[in-house]
Write a structure and sequence with these properties.
Radius of gyration: 27 Å
Shape: elongated
Distance between the termini: 69 Å
Structural class: alpha/beta
Largest sheet: 4 strands, mixed
Number of strands: 9
Protein name: Retrovirus-related Pol polyprotein from transposon TNT 1-94-like beta-barrel domain-containing protein
Helix content: 10-25%
Strand order of the largest sheet: 2-5-4-3
């Protein structure tokens, strides 16, 4: 079965408090599976979120430009992966890194532009689109995409709301995972033998440094100290107990 092409429509919605993508293929290497939900300002049932990560959108920078310089990357952080969403959404968090202008000088032949902190245009909204839709780079610069879900003449109200409670759950989970990834590994057999030889075991080694074998944080600190001592010894210095 052929792989389904991703939804092409990335719609700016200033009523959305988060970015959202319909297809997994938009995400980069930092994609992380999560279990969450989002809602809408108009109510209705919540829909499932299955992942989060960074999206680098290959975009056209100028409707009148050609060649390599006419393309750019619009980077979106903490984008939610929502397979059942109607289309991709660029939410209000974009204002943390970019500005948006929907009229006036510099927006000719567009429905608006997105610019960076140096006021350089990085993307624009397609004037032929139904809503404020970012103009993607065509293949081979950008990916092959599927058909637009929008029908001209129909009314749409696109927004995504990620509840603070759901966001906090994700932040707590991310913090816990970060803490786990920085935990000090347990003692190796070689380290246990070293402790036995020089200190008659971990208990006396910890006690000599004012640490307790009955406290996990003390044992972790002890492993850090031990490894520093052993590394020092391997460099030819022998200042252990013997």
């Amino acid at each position: 079965m052929a792989e389904q092409l991703p939804c092409p429509s990335w719609i700016w919605s200033n009523n959305s408090n988060v970015h959202a993508a319909k297809d997994r293929s938009w995400f980069g290497a930092d994609y992380t599976p999560i279990n969450s939900t989002v809602g809408s300002l108009i109510g209705g049932p919540e829909i499932a979120v299955v992942g989060i990560g960074t999206v680098d959108l290959p975009v056209k920078r100028d409707p009148n430009a050609t060649g390599p310089q006419s393309h750019g990357i619009l980077r979106l952080h903490n984008v939610l992966h929502i397979p059942t969403i109607f289309c991709n959404v660029i939410g209000n968090p974009i204002s943390k890194e970019y500005g948006i202008l929907t009229g006036g000088p510099g927006t000719e032949n567009t429905s608006g532009v997105i610019f960076d902190k140096q006021h350089r245009t990085v993307a624009y909204f397609d004037p032929q689109a139904v809503l404020f839709e970012v103009k993607l780079s065509d293949p081979p610069v950008g990916p092959a995409v599927g058909p637009s879900p929008f029908v001209r003449g129909a009314a749409y109200y696109i927004n995504v709301r990620w509840a603070d409670s759901e966001r906090e759950k994700w932040e707590a989970s991310r913090a816990a995972n970060a803490a786990e990834s920085t935990e000090v590994p347990p003692l190796s057999d070689e380290e246990k033998q070293w402790l036995k030889k020089h200190w008659d075991g971990e208990f006396k080694f910890l006690a000599s440094h004012g640490l307790s074998i009955y406290k996990d944080e003390d044992r972790e600190e002890g492993r850090i100290i031990l490894r520093a001592i052993m590394a020092h010894d391997r460099d030819g210095n022998h200042n252990d107990r013997d």
